[in-house]
Amino acid sequence: MTKIxxxxxxxxxxxxxxxxxxxxGYEVIMAEDGxxxxxxAMSDGPDVILMDMSxxxxxxxxxxxxxxxxxxxxxxxxxxxxAHAMDSDRDKALEAGCDDYDTKPIELPRLIExxxxxxxxxxxxxxxx
Length: 129
Ligand code: MN
Description:
Blueprint: E1 3-7, H1 11-23, E2 27-31, H2 34-44, E3 48-52, H3 60-69, E4 78-82, H4 87-96, E5 100-103, H5 108-127
Parallel strand pairs: 1-2, 1-3, 3-4, 4-5
Helix pairs in contact: 2-3
This protein binds manganese (II) ion.
């Protein structure tokens, strides 16, 4: 089962997204700030991370930079989630090392497509010698 880590400080957003992904057959784990997000990625080894960018303790950009600086974690795809559909936000997320980007409110089919595309790409990269 695909394990998704949701890093989101807003309880309502977190619970709603978790419920919807669980219903689609994903295993969901959660963290409510950037620091816990990095720690949970280390301890629970998710297949993909959905990263809110505006987070307490450390923000999503910094959490992503830490994940991508770690040899154990850098292979985990990170999808940035922000409230703004601005190009600058997208660029900033990709610069921090995010593998993809999506905007809130979440459109679940679109998000799942991005998740599955990244998982397929990762599987293919692993198969290469
Ligand atoms: Mn937030």
